[in-house]
Amino acid sequence: MSQSKDLQGGKAFGLRKAQQEEGLNEINKQFLNNPKYCSDEDLPSKLEAFKSEEKYKYMEFDLNGNGDIDIMSLKRMLEKLGVPKTHLELKKLIREVSSGSEETFSYSDFLRMMLGKRSAILRVILMYEEKNKEHQKPTGPPAKKAISELP
Predict the structure, then answer these.
(1) How far is CA 147 from the centre of its chain?
(2) From its phi and psi, is residue 85 left (phi > 0), alpha (psi between -120 and 50) or beta?
(3) Most buried residue, 69, 80, 88, 96, by most Cβ within 10 Å?
(4) What is the phi/psi pair of residue 8, to 5°?
(5) What are the pLDDT digits (tens) for 51-77?
(6) What's the CATH code of the domain at 32?
(7) Beta bridge partners of 105
(8) Domain presence at residue 4
(9) Structural domain span for residue 27
(10) DSSP annotation string for 19-87
């Protein structure tokens, strides 16, 4: 058996994810100390939600673990939110959000996008979340109707 073969891949992955989460926590602290965002109500809970809530899990969509979300990860994130986009729309969104390269955006860029007051992406996400809430089907047996109420 080869000695270079790493049988502890799961453990290494867990350690890498723990380091990644620590880095995201540091960025969250920077945003908490930033006077631009300190007036935002519930900022600590929002930051924690963006990092680890089921829908927005930044760590889940950072597939390669380098701290940046690329175009395919963004595509998966928006599809999970019910807002599929074309490749060109995704490139435009990344260009709008990204402070550095045009192919990826960082967690800091992601937070600025989500906390920004006039963010087009956030408005789209919130709009689709509200539509999902409105279309909840009633539970239980249907209400009885009189003959005059029928179409």
Answers:
(1) 49
(2) beta
(3) 69
(4) -105, 40
(5) 665 545 677 777 666 778 888 888 887
(6) 1.10.238.10
(7) 69
(8) no
(9) 17-129
(10) HHHHHHHHHHHHHHH-TTTTTSTTHHHHHHHHHHSTTT-HHHH-TTSSSEEEHHHHHHHHHHTT----H
∠ CA 31-70-34, nearest 5°, is 5
The answer to whether residues 61 and 74 touch, using CB atoms and an 8 Å cutoff, is yes
Determine the pLDDT at residue 1: 43
Cα 109 from Cα 101, distance rounded (Å): 11
The Cβ of residue 97 has, within 10 Å, a number of other Cβ atoms equal to 20
Identify whether 119 is part of a domain.
Answer: yes
Residue from 33, 124, 28, 39 nearest 74 by CA: 124
Measured CA to CA, the distance from residue 58 to residue 25 in angstroms comes to 12
Which residues are registered as beta bridge partners of 89?
A: none
Q: List, for residues 81-138, the tens digit of each pLDDT value.
A: 777 888 888 888 788 777 666 778 888 887 777 776 555 666 666 566 666 555 567 7
**Would 146 be classed as within a structural domain?**
no
CB-CB contact of 71 with 87 (8 Å) = yes
Q: How many domains does the chain have?
A: 1
